[in-house]
Known about the structure:
alpha+beta, Maltose phosphorylase, domain 3, 5-stranded antiparallel sheet
Amino acid sequence: MSRSVRxxxxxxxxxxxxxxxxxxxxxxxxxxxFRDAQIxxxxxxxxxxxxxxxxxVPFVNASASGGEPLLANPNAVLLYPTFLFERVFPPEAAFNxxxxxxxxxAYLGARLLxxxxxxxxxxxxxxxxxxxxxxxxxxxxxxxMNSSAAAAWLPWCGAAFVDLGSAADARSRLxxxxxxxxxxxxxLLAGEPAITLVTLALGxxxxxxxxxxxxxxxxxxxxxxxxASLLSGTLAIALAAPLLLPLRAVFGLxxxxxxxxxxxxxxxxxxxxxxxxxxxLPRFGGSPELLGGGANWLRSIARxxxxxxxxxxxxxxPLAVVLLAALRRDFWDxxxxxxxxxxxxxxxxxxxxxxxxxxxxxxxxxxxxxxxxIKFYLLTSVAAALLAGxxxxxxxxxxxxxxxxxxxxxxxxxxxxAFFAAAPGGALDRWAGARAERIADDPxxxxxxxxxxxxxxxxxxxxxxxxxxxxxRPAAGGRTAASLLALLALxxxxxxxxxxxxxxxxxxxxxxxxxxxxxxxxxRLYVSPRLPLFDAxxxxxxxxxxxxxxxRVARILVEQLVPATGSPFGARYLFENDxxxxxxxxxxxxxxxxxxxxxxxxxxxLRLYGGRWVLAPEGEEHPLxxxxxxxxxxxxxxxxSESADAMPELRWAGRVWRRPALxxxxxxxxxxxxxxxxxxxxxxxxxxxxxxxxxxxxxxxVTVAADGADVLVDAAAPGHLVFSRTFFPAWLARVDGQxxxxxxxxxxxxxxxVPAGRHRVAFSWDAGPFRRGVALQALAVFAAALAALGSxxxxxxxxxxxxxxxxxxx
Length: 810
């Protein structure tokens, strides 16, 4: 079978093996619900799809936190090509396919990068599987819509930078620059800037490697490659301009744009030495499909506040192959040494502040906003995958010896020790028992599940080592051995990798919650930060269950209307809890002030910002809201309360207060001195109180949309029109068609000054940055197409030999 046939068949085989267990998710009968997938990405995508269906560009998510930027939010991933899946597939299938497709895209990209670095086809296949099905990639690919896409593009960008460095002439350099620009641009559109920065670091190293391996003077080729990379960067920025320009317009007043993270926050979710156990036992941290066996356990042993990456394994098969090959000197050529050094360096940075290296990142103020040092571990995963391919090629050229047998025996001893330690009453129980008492509702069931996961991984690991030995031991057939290793790595990844893709029946999640009919009409919903709240024992389907399935929590989140799970059913939230993307700084500060207030002060803030309903656990005080109904969800009693006089989204304020600081403004608006129906607090150099009664005005012909409002004002005297939307500089105001300054009011909302008389006042979201971004993107695509056409080799015409007639006659 020719190489041109083998490569597509191998790719098809990987896709089929991965897809078969996930057919319900592919066809949309089940919906991915792990972590951010359910509480942010799915609701945001539904909000955007609804806006487009009604003929509007989804600039603003009106259901979130008084109106938050949606199109400009990188976490929403609305300008990325997979959003087009919504036009082809049912919404549930389209949503799931974004995640699943990028696992395969990561596999293909790593395979291509390995080929660019000179690995054989079989070894490149092995590298592709090792990266695409690594713990890092699958953890991203099961929960984070933006990170999964960005991580999938990383090896593609790397391959383009290798081409850029090794380009032999201007034509090939132009083609490589266009490819790198397109890959980087699509990665930027995925909306994970930290991974893009990590990609650029990798790209710089690979560009230099490509320039050195080309066999010509290094300095000159490197300089030309770096110059061409500037073209790639320009192309990438232009391609991502429809996201970057709208984001630039609002970033200054997002929470991430305003907040400089502390050392503790910036170094959160770092890698730890204890997690290295997952290299051999991938489910040592638990299984996300079971409650009580995952994040809590990792938090207990690693003392982390938040587990960002669920599993950090490279896969037992790739790790074993690398260590077996590393025993011999012939493996350690320049490529292997540089990859190992790069992987270890990235690993050191992923430890965060545990080691001093991360302080180099923290010293640069803009980089503090990126957080989560474990993202450097993505580079370690790439390096490990490429080393696995090199190792497969190396083992295919040598005979099995005593060193290899000894190392295989060590692996088997470790797995046997883990298996016997996880026996009932064994060393694992003695070590874990006290911790289980602290973190589990049912310690005995928790320990039983934990033992089963460890023993299962130990058996799988031992079997993998034995099969690796059987495959590698013959001296001949290196390509066949590498392909078999790739298949073994893929199959062995499924037992721990598939449980990451937690899903729930789509029919359950698309059914409106019990309280949906109560949330009709104007006003917003405040959901207590104490939710979700549930009794884990109430989730068990029957008493024989050891631990409840986490997929059952998905419906509880919907029933308890945890932000933003209720927005597809019409819930409009007062505050959400996502600190990333383009979440409003003013909104976040207001929500924190509400949480720190007394019950009466908190309720005044909620009513000021348009709160009409409150959903909270029974016993939580809300004196300004009247209980209207209650319900029990998963063993907990919840109460829905309502305010009889919810504030309108557009209202007149004839009495002006001024405060110089945000804290002073919040202190005033939650006090009894402030009257929300006629007062407004505006920024000022000094504190000023109103001298007398305020003016009045009549509002008519009121029109309110997600991204704007229009009203006719009849004012007896000058005053301010207040629009209950979270303030961002992208909001524009017009009075009688003339631009007027929109200012922040009441520490969160918008206001515009209106003179006395009859005036038409309008608020609108500035669409200019998006339009300019689309124009730049069109130019970028056109330029890339020209570069691709211009770099094509022209066919050489075959010249017929000219016959000299006179010579022929002689």
